[in-house]
């Protein structure tokens, strides 16, 4: 299977899994998952528009534009597999894109794994659907200084954001691959009531919820899986929103068990 998109390709001939990162992420955030799944799986995780090394794309940062990008990529992958659909995993905004994609093109998606996001992203169901990060620090002399500046701006742990930090070859020091103003647009584009899209597909679906999540309340997660045929819920009591970081072994086991024939 050819792969030309910027991002992560774990390689090999294993079961292909398209993995879509969330806001502030990049394909490389799934490197640990790919390693834990081993050669039985091939994880394909693109850098999405506005993130990582994805080149600029017109059309803004609404969910439909992200879904357009994923549809084009997945169409190519499915064609290369002789028409056989792929499983799609999505974290946070990536999960919203994943179930939009399944509703739009059920012929491309064989199964869904939705990591810690629900069928609505708005108040009052979600207390803080958008973190306003406009103007946050984007460069620093060292990687450690950049992480400290981000944490001082308003997050307790900058590890997920720092997955997009790279050496600044032009000016020295370290910089982020994304733009903070763009990330506010990305999050705003994901705000909405997406129940019709979540309920619009019938492939098997596994919903992963972090026990300490603030973006997928327990009540909403249970309703989400109860209302959609073929969906089931798996909770990770000790994890927060980034379950694949907080419990990487558990997530790999869940993915393997769900997708292995």
Task: Give me some keywords for this one.
Alpha/beta hydrolase fold containing protein, 261 residues, 20% strand, three-stranded antiparallel sheet, alpha/beta, 12 strands, seven-stranded mixed sheet, Rossmann fold
What does this structure look like?
It is a single chain. With 261 residues, the protein is α/β, with parallel strands linked by helices. It has a single domain, classed as Rossmann fold, CATH 3.40.50.1820. It contains 10 helices and 12 strands. The strands form 3 sheets. Strands 1-3-2-4-5-11-12 form a 7-stranded mixed β-sheet, with helices on both faces. A 3-stranded antiparallel β-sheet has the order 7-9-8. It is globular, with a radius of gyration of 17 Å. The mean pLDDT is 96.
Shape annotation:
globular
Strand order of the largest sheet: 1-3-2-4-5-11-12
Bin the strand percentage: 15-25%
What is the average of the pLDDT values? 96
Compute the CA-based radius of gyration: 17 Å
Count of all domains? 1
With helices defined by DSSP (H or I, 4 residues minimum), what is the helix count? 10
Low-pLDDT runs of 5+ residues are none
Q: Which structural class is indicated by helix and strand composition?
A: alpha/beta
- Compute the number of strand runs: 12
CATH architecture assignment: 3-Layer(aba) Sandwich
Can you identify the CATH class? Alpha Beta
Q: Provide the helix percentage.
A: 25-40%
What does the largest sheet look like?
Answer: 7 strands, mixed
What is the succession of H and E elements? Answer: EEHEHEHEEEHHEEHEHEHEHH
Q: What is the CATH homologous superfamily assignment?
A: Alpha/Beta hydrolase fold, catalytic domain
């Amino acid at each position: 299977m050819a792969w030309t998109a910027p991002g992560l390709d774990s390689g090999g001939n294993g079961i292909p899994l398209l993995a879509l990162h969330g806001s502030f992420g990049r394909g490389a955030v799934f490197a640990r998952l790919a390693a834990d799944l081993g050669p039985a799986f091939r994880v394909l995780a693109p850098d999405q528009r506005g993130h990582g090394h994805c080149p600029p794309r017109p059309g803004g940062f609404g969910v439909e534009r992200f879904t357009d990008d994923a549809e084009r990529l997945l169409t190519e992958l499915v064609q290369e597999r002789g028409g056989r659909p792929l499983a799609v995993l999505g974290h946070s905004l990536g999960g919203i894109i994943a179930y939009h994609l399944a509703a739009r093109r059920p012929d491309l998606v064989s199964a869904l794994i939705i990591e810690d996001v629900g069928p609505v992203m708005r108040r009052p169901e979600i207390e803080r659907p958008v973190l306003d990060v406009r103007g946050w620090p984007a460069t620093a002399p060292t990687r450690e200084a950049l992480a400290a500046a981000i944490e001082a701006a308003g997050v307790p742990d900058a590890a997920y954001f720092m997955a997009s930090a790279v050496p600044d070859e032009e000016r020295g020091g370290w910089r982020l691959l994304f733009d903070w103003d763009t990330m506010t647009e990305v999050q705003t584009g994901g705000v909405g009531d997406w129940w019709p899209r979540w309920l619009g597909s019938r492939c098997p679906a596994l919903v992963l919820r972090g026990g300490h999540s603030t973006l997928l309340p327990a009540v909403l997660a249970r309703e989400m899986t109860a209302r959609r045929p073929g969906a089931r819920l798996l909770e990770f009591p000790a994890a927060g929103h980034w379950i694949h970081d907080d419990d990487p072994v558990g997530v790999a086991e869940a993915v393997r068990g769900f997708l292995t024939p």
